């Protein structure tokens, strides 16, 4: 069974530390979840694996915004999914207009959303093209 290994996320860790000017601490490192955070600021990233079906970003916060950190993280997570045959990537509980716009710009679709004035809060999903599901078509 596929599990999360902190070494697979080293590029993400380095990029967050560089852009956020912080040192990340590993709060949780289980086979199915990795949770990174900075003790001295509101920087964190939590990624959970639901079998080989879905990779879930359940917590994400960056102090320094609009410098490409989340775009880099997204590209790395999509690559991880492609390599490991994971078919969906979810950004869970999107609760800001900024993140909702980021998700829409990158091809995510909202499911079970709640409409606010300027955006829809909820879970945003994107289908990942893997060798396995490309061959099925």
Key phrases:
alpha+beta; seven-stranded mixed sheet; 7 strands; 30% helix
Alpha plus pi helix count = 4
Label the structural class.
Answer: alpha+beta
Low-confidence parts, pLDDT < 50 over ≥5 residues?
none
| Tally of DSSP β-strands | 7
Rg over CA atoms, rounded to whole Å, is 15 Å
Word description of this protein:
The protein is an alpha+beta fold. 30% of the residues lie in helices and 36% in strands. It is built from four helices and seven strands, in the order αββββαβαββα. It has helices spanning 10-20, 69-84, 97-105, 131-135; strands at residues 24-30, 33-38, 44-50, 54-61, 88-94, 109-115, 120-127. A seven-stranded mixed β-sheet has the order 1-2-3-4-5-7-6. A hairpin with a 5-residue loop joins strand 2 and strand 3. Helix 1 runs antiparallel to helix 2.
Give a short synopsis of this structure.
It is globular and about 35 Å long.
List the helices and strands and how they pair.
Layout (H helix, E strand, L loop, with lengths): L9 H11 L3 E7 L2 E6 L5 E7 L3 E8 L7 H16 L3 E7 L2 H9 L3 E7 L4 E8 L3 H5 L2
Parallel strand pairs: 4-5
Antiparallel strand pairs: 1-2, 2-3, 3-4, 5-7, 6-7
């Amino acid at each position: 069974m596929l599990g999360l290994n902190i070494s697979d996320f080293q590029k993400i860790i380095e990029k967050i530390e560089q852009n956020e000017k912080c040192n990340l601490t590993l709060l949780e490192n289980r086979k199915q979840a990795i949770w990174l955070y900075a003790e001295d600021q509101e920087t964190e990233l939590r990624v959970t694996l639901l079998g080989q079906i879905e990779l879930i970003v359940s917590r994400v916060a960056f102090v320094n915004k609009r410098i490409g950190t989340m775009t880099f993280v997204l590209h790395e997570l999509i690559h991880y999914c492609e390599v490991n045959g994971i078919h969906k990537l979810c950004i869970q509980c999107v609760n800001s207009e900024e993140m909702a716009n980021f998700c829409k710009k990158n091809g995510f679709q909202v499911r079970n959303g709640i409409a606010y004035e300027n955006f829809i809060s909820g879970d945003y999903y994107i289908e990942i093209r893997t060798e396995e599901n490309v061959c099925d078509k």
